[in-house]
Amino acid sequence: MGRGPSPLTQRLLLLLLRRAASAAPDKMPAVSKGDGMRGLAVFISDIRNCKSKEAEIKRINKELANIRSKFKGDKALDGYSKKKYVCKLLFIFLLGHDIDFGHMEAVNLLSSNKYTEKQIGYLFISVLVNSNSDLIRLINNGIKNDLTSRNPTFMNLALHCIANVGSREMAEAFAAEIPRILVAGSVIQLLAPLSAADQPIRAVVLVVLHHGQREGVVTAATSLITTLAQKSPDDFKTSVSLAVARLSRIVTSASIDLQDYTYYFVAAPWLSVKLLRLLQCYPPPEDAALRGRLTECLETILNKAQEPPKSKKVQHSNAKNAVLFEAISLIIHHDSEPTLLVRACNQLGQFLQHRETNLRYLALESMCTLASSEFSHEAVKTHIETVINALKTERDVSVRQRAVDLLYAMCDRSNAKQIVAEMLSYLETADYSIREEIVLKVAILAEKYAVDYTWYVDTILNLIRIAGDYVSDEVWYRVIQIVINRDDVQGYAAKTVFEALQAPACHENLVKVGGYILGEFGNLIAGDSRSSPLVQFNLLHSKFHLCSVPTRALLLSAYIKFINLFPEVKATIQEVLRSDSQLRNADVELQQRAVEYLRLSCIASTDILATVLEEMPPFPERESSILAKLKRKKGPGNLPDIDDTRRSVNGNTEHNNNNTETTAKVSSDLLALSPAPSAGASLLVDVFSESSAPAAADVYEDNFARFVCKNNGVLYENQLLQIGLKSEYRQNLGRMYVFYGNKTSTQFLSFTASVGSPDPLNTHILHPVDPTVDGGAQVQQILNIECLSDFTEAPVLNIQFRYGGTLQSIAVKLPIMLNKFFQPTEMMSQDFFQRWKQLGAPQQEVQKIFKAKHPMDTEVTKAKIIGFGAALLDGVDPNPANFVGAGVIHTKSTQVGCLLRLEPNTQAQMYRLTLRTSRDSVSQRLCDLLSEQF
Amino acid sequence: MIKAILIFNNHGKPRLIRFYQYFAEDLQQQIIRETFHLVSKRDDNVCNFLEGGSLIGGSDYKLIYRHYATLYFVFCVDSSESELGILDLIQVFVETLDKCFENVCELDLIFHMDKVHYILQEVVMGGMVLETNMNEIVAQVELQNRMEKSEGGLSAAPARAVSAVKNMNLPEIPRNINIGDINIKVPSLSPF
């Protein structure tokens, strides 16, 4: 890197630059201050001179190509060029272009001996390399070299990199090294991202906190302890007394003592803030002396706030107040000293009217937490007028939002009406981004502090009127729940919604509430001729055509309720339901409701109607669904806890959710207005869901035995699917063709077939089947089979596919049995008996006597034995009625010779089957298989 | 903890980005755009804090920013940082830049991106505030500069020479001269 031009040149150039900058902020001459990397400066100037985005991209691509070719080129680049190119890449990255190369070069720079090259290498890595990069090992290596290099500068660079990347691997790789290095340098900081709270670190940082001379190091140590203390508070309890001691030294010192860290006449503000943060990890100290000392500190900080400022600069007041706000947070956190709390509250009250917007913002925010303390709640309430004023006059939306939060937090029964009214009027002009939250807050406060529920109903209807779009479903569900559960407001609610619906344009949410409430309680106001049943119906129906499908569905349900409530309008309503626009509505849900309601009204007797369409039962009382929603919105913990909502009137989350879930399946989103149809719907759904559950199919093996003596045929068949087989075997190998026939006219989707075979068999599917099988089509699958050794268990074919939306799953036992690997052996009578005698050991022979299941036909029996795979030997057995066979079972590992003899007894309709093989398990298996065939 | 430090100009062009938590590259750019959108529409004398945009973590995070002439300095921090403290930190950072660059302006940030990063590294490391004493920071930066110079003295001399010659626009020197050549031909050419 260059020494740079002389100061004079520098000044001149700067002036030149400044003029250029002020004239045209995006242009400049192609000269920089003239440090070494001229190419970089030229490139940057080029980019800045680009007139269009396209030109810029073109220039960048050119440069990228250039750098890439340089990196790939044969000529080894010197450190300087590498540094220059890496710098260019950094700049390109800053402009938002992906950099997919150069990482390796940056890593190489780490091993350079030059400080500047190393530095840029580390910079590139910490900006661009993400922590799960493949290069992390190489990087770690470079870091390790630098850490052990005894060059403090290199060590610092390495430490910086660890801290900035802060990945788990790095933490693990270096956790042991770092505490050793940690002597006096400013390196403590980087421990914080590493979560290891092991002994050496703890000892070291606590010592630093206690004895550390340099404030910067202590600040860093405090951050670290705070992080660690949050993870394991018990291990760092001792830090409390140390922190208090430190704090008291700072607070009581004359500002000259800490010259270096005095910032605009405030002694070590950052350290104070960090110490106060640390103390917020713990409850108030138990030790009286310590506690007294801390209280003294806090009082001093509060006192200082009242002193005249030592400087007019905003930095002075900022630094002072940063400490003050942190002290107030600590006071609120401890929540134990009433005098301090009230003083804090008064201090915040002053800030509420401060001309500095930042302070007003922070004051509102702190007061929010203060409001939840029983000691200061009343004190906070005295500021209500100021806060309301802030809501009205504050120019900054983020400050107004804090004001809303504070109003919400300070609300209680005494001021609820005022606060709700103010929030409602603010809602009309509120920023769109916070409207929904305000709506939720108003709804909650209105419900929580409602003494008289007519006020509640009015408030919610106002909400819908003012900010209907922001009233979420939970809010209007809630008002309905409350009206249904409280007899005393039902009449009033019916009257109010009826009046509200008179407005020529009203929000759809109001139509929903109106439809529901009139459907349930319209009878309560029907006595008045101005709101007679017919008038009510016509009013609702006049909104019908402007509404969305879910609302229309709800209105249809309201109509059927009307039929029950007011028999006199039955004909009118039936007429409406019968119209083509209802009965033939394109929407399934609306059509279904229209058809069902119409039939219901025609068929059912008055008694049945009255039972089916009875008033909704009260909702069970659970946590308010809107409160839950607000909590979701704000995230847990952010909401000042408005106590025991469970005591509030009624309502629940689950009820609603259940209903929406079931009805949602039939494309609607309604409260279960009338039990009949929605119950029907969910029943239907249940029927579907039952059949859609993939039946845990048993393995089908009915046809298995049929294939013992033959190789082709139909293996499986149901209404949907037919599976046919063709197979051929040679020695220990076999090939099976499986045919899947779709018997329906509909496509099978996601069709899969797989084979699970026992160990001694190798089955291998040659082609996976096509995932769709058209209606009436047949697809073929080929299996290659290899027999490794003798086996009993047959493989299972698993088939799955989707038919008409439901998953079908079939498992069939594949007829691959040991005798398929039989090779017939012809032999003479003499040979046969010789071998028969050789296989005389008791375990080699298996004999079975069994009753004939089929007619005893000689030809059929012969065919079966041949089909079984053995050679049928004529004229071997002295008794011509007996059958004798011989063959060899081929497996990959061995060959097993088999002899068999079948003696029929026609009189007794019995057979005796004898098998002799060189292996007992084979004898047994063959005997089992063959004996089933006669 | 500080999650990200973003510096962009009045048109939303990023001048320095530093994330202390991993975000994919394209997401980083989206965050810059979102933040610019949030910050730039605010008047100059409203408060300096606002809730973070949805991309960077929503209301759990605060954006603390200052607007100097053509540049916005935005720090995205979690709830463990003091708002006013960070606000002062931005001030310290900018004052330090000012000292290091002598009347810092946007162009300094553009052409000395690496330097700005190094200065920032003296102030914030791994998302933690490292040093707040301006004199200390400036001393460290000067130390760095001295080291650079001591290393770069030889290798940079030719570059300076080229730059000086080009600025003088001397016709007899070919434009695309290579550094090695000039070192031989005009070895004693000195800067102004």
From TrEMBL, chain A:
It is found in: Cell membrane; Membrane, Coated pit. Gene3D superfamilies: 2.60.40.1230, Leucine-rich Repeat Variant, TATA-Binding Protein. It is a peripheral membrane protein. Residues 1-23 form the signal peptide. Keywords: Cell membrane, Coated pit, Endocytosis, Membrane, Protein transport, Signal, Transport. Residues 637-663 are annotated as: Disordered. GO terms for biological process: clathrin-dependent endocytosis; intracellular protein transport. The keyword Translocase does not apply. Residues 705-815 form the Clathrin adaptor alpha/beta/gamma-adaptin appendage Ig-like subdomain domain. A 1,2-diacyl-sn-glycero-3-phospho-(1D-myo-inositol-3,4,5-trisphosphate) binds at R38, G39, K70, Y80, K84, Y85, V86, C87, K88. Residues 650-663 have a biased composition (Low complexity). InterPro entries: Adaptor_Complx_Large_Subunit, AP2_complex_asu, ARM-like, ARM-type_fold, Clathrin/coatomer_adapt-like_N, Clathrin_a-adaptin_app_sub_C, Clathrin_a/b/g-adaptin_app_Ig, Clathrin_app_Ig-like_sf. GO terms for molecular function: clathrin adaptor activity. SMART domains: Alpha_adaptinC2. Component of the adaptor protein complex 2 (AP-2). Adaptor protein complexes function in protein transport via transport vesicles in different membrane traffic pathways. Adaptor protein complexes are vesicle coat components and appear to be involved in cargo selection and vesicle formation. AP-2 is involved in clathrin-dependent endocytosis in which cargo proteins are incorporated into vesicles surrounded by clathrin (clathrin-coated vesicles, CCVs) which are destined for fusion with the early endosome. Belongs to the adaptor complexes large subunit family. This is AP-2 complex subunit alpha. It comes from Myripristis murdjan.
From TrEMBL, chain B:
It comes from the Eukaryota. Transmembrane segments: none annotated. One of its GO terms (biological process) is Golgi to vacuole transport. It comes from Muraenolepis orangiensis (Patagonian moray cod). Pfam families: Clat_adaptor_s (PF01217). It is a peripheral membrane protein. InterPro entries: AP_complex_ssu (IPR016635), AP_mu_sigma_su (IPR022775), APS3 (IPR027155), Clathrin_sm-chain_CS (IPR000804), Longin-like_dom_sf (IPR011012). This is AP complex mu/sigma subunit domain-containing protein. Belongs to the adaptor complexes small subunit family. Residues 1-147 form the AP complex mu/sigma subunit domain. Its main location: membrane. It is found in: Cytoplasmic vesicle membrane; Golgi apparatus. Gene3D superfamilies: 3.30.450.60. One of its GO terms (cellular component) is Golgi apparatus. Part of the AP-3 complex, an adaptor-related complex which is not clathrin-associated. The complex is associated with the Golgi region as well as more peripheral structures. It facilitates the budding of vesicles from the Golgi membrane and may be directly involved in trafficking to lysosomes. In concert with the BLOC-1 complex, AP-3 is required to target cargos into vesicles assembled at cell bodies for delivery into neurites and nerve terminals. Keywords: Cytoplasmic vesicle, Golgi apparatus, Membrane, Protein transport, Transport.
